[in-house]
């Protein structure tokens, strides 16, 4: 940017169907025009009804190019490769994931848009990227997609179904994954005149289902985890007010022990861990990564810094507007992409080229403190310039270096408002220092990429692998006897 009644015998939300009305109206029309004594017309009526039913059933599956994620997992995990244990994946009622994909046209709050159907295609990667000639090496273009920044719920589900440390044995699992697309489910109801019940509906269905599972009852959910595709603040509504933003999902009593992954975490929640936003590059092999690293390392850059974004006129003293005006005035050093003019959503060739040709990229706050654009700019070897500590402090601790100064620059936003000159600060960095920071980004780059589910990265671990290691390690240590923990402290 959601409770209907629910029972164990019916996990689906009510669906609208006009099949019966159409069938009756068709029959009545034919009956009024012709005598039922005419057998030929009776046959024609029946055939017409059948054609209508077939048509409506096919239409309900629109678009046909978006099949639900398939579970084709067969191979057992290899013990030697799973030092932190294994994960069990729940098979949830389809209304909580599969049907959200199948009915993707209903996800978007704006009915004229087809963005969500596009976003959830290709296992969450979105449509194949186009217009990359001369920007990305030709043989790497098939690994690029216009990926929606809030698609991680679908991507993680797709990946975990073929994860090497997945188990189908409930009794041997270290962790239990709940593949609920809560971000997709609530997204439609974040705007306009929807109620708090609308925003909570799917979450309550999921919790009512999972609380009856034997594996949940054993631990009250303390070895369960979920991926939240949106910012954490979208799931933290405090009151049941229809005018208050978001769902109360995280604050629901049954969620008190569940670990959650999200693209931006709350630093006050010990059960929440942030994972990188998905970018446009989804490597198919280790050689894809190595080729891209070499490509951006050798790139000759013509601009000192850049800014990609749009002003937010509804914000008082909008900092983005300040950066945009500054960049316009420093046009000999700064490249600007104004997203109020250029279509920037989920990627555009002009954005990629801008990052590729710049040493630094200005990164103000996004919808929260963090921003998908930060990972986009690092993907192209540009060094992020932060203006709020919350954009990097206590975020992505599993994936990014602890010392943010090794790969980024921090200039306090208040200092900029009071006259600190951004260009002067950046010009103080020598070419050797800039190259060193870029090399740091190149080295940890695989840690913020999401490869395809059938990729062979060799010994390289991508963002998903590192997140799974973090989750399993935490649960394994949590289950160790207290005496063992004392010995190792």
UniProtKB/TrEMBL annotation:
Transmembrane region positions? 39-56
Q: Which GO terms describe its biological process?
A: xyloglucan biosynthetic process
Gene Ontology CC: one annotated term: Golgi membrane
- Name the keywords, alphabetized: Glycosyltransferase, Golgi apparatus, Membrane, Signal-anchor, Transferase, Transmembrane, Transmembrane helix
Pfam families listed in its UniProt record: Exostosin_GT47
Q: Which residues form the Exostosin GT47 domain?
A: 82-422
Instruction: State the Gene Ontology terms under molecular function.
Output: galactosyltransferase activity
- Give the primary localization class: Golgi
Localization, per the record, is: Golgi apparatus membrane
Protein topology in the membrane: Single-pass type II membrane protein
> InterPro entries recorded for this chain?
Exostosin, Exostosin_GT47
Similarity-based family: Belongs to the glycosyltransferase 47 family.
- Annotated protein name in UniProt: Xyloglucan galactosyltransferase XLT2-like
């Amino acid at each position: 940017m959601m409770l209907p009644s629910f029972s164990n015998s019916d996990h689906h939300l009510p669906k609208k169907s006009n099949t019966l009305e159409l069938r009756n109206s068709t029959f009545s029309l034919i009956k009024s025009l012709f005598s039922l004594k005419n057998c030929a017309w009776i046959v024609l009526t029946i055939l017409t009804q059948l054609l209508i039913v077939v048509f409506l059933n096919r239409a309900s599956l629109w678009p046909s190019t978006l099949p639900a994620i398939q579970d084709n997992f067969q191979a057992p995990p290899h013990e030697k490769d799973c030092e932190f244990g294994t994960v069990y994946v729940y098979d949830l009622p389809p209304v909580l994931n599969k049907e959200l994909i199948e009915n993707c046209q209903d996800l978007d709050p704006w009915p004229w848009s087809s963005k969500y159907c596009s976003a959830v295609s290709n296992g969450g990667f979105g449509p194949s990227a186009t217009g990359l000639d001369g920007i990305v090496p030709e043989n790497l273009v098939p690994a690029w997609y216009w990926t929606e920044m809030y698609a991680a719920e679908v991507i993680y589900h797709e990946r975990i179904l073929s994860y090497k440390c997945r188990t189908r044995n409930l009794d041997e699992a270290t962790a239990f994954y709940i593949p609920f697309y809560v971000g997709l489910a609530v997204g439609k109801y974040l705007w306009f005149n929807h109620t708090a019940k609308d925003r909570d509906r799917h979450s309550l269905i999921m919790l009512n289902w999972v609380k009856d599972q034997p594996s949940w009852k054993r631990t009250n959910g303390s070895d369960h985890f979920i991926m939240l595709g949106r910012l954490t603040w979208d799931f933290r509504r405090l009151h049941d007010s229809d005018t208050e933003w978001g769902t109360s999902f995280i604050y629901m009593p049954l969620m008190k022990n569940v670990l959650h992954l999200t693209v931006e975490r709350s630093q006050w929640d010990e059960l929440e861990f942030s994972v990188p936003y998905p970018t446009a590059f989804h490597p198919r092999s280790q050689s894809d990564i190595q080729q891209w690293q070499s490509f951006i390392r050798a790139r000759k850059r013509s601009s000192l810094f850049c800014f990609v974004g749009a002003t937010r006129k509804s914000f008082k003293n909008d900092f983005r507007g300040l950066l945009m005006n500054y960049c316009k005035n420093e046009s000999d050093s700064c490249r600007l992409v104004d997203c109020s003019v250029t279509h920037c959503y989920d990627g555009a060739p002009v954005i990629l080229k801008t990052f590729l040709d710049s040493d630094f990229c200005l990164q103000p706050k996004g919808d929260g403190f963090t921003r998908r654009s930060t990972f986009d700019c690092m993907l192209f070897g540009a060094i992020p310039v932060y203006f709020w500590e919350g954009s990097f402090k206590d975020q992505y601790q599993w994936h990014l270096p602890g010392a943010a100064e090794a790969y980024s620059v921090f200039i306090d936003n208040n200092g900029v408002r009071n006259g600190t000159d951004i260009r002067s600060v950046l010009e103080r960095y020598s070419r050797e220092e800039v190259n060193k920071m870029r090399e740091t980004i190149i080295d940890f780059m695989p840690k913020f990429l999401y490869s395809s589910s059938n990729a062979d990265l060799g010994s390289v671990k991508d963002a998903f692998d590192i997140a799974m290691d973090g989750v399993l390690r935490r649960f394994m240590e949590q289950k160790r006897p207290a005496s063992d923990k004392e010995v190792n402290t």
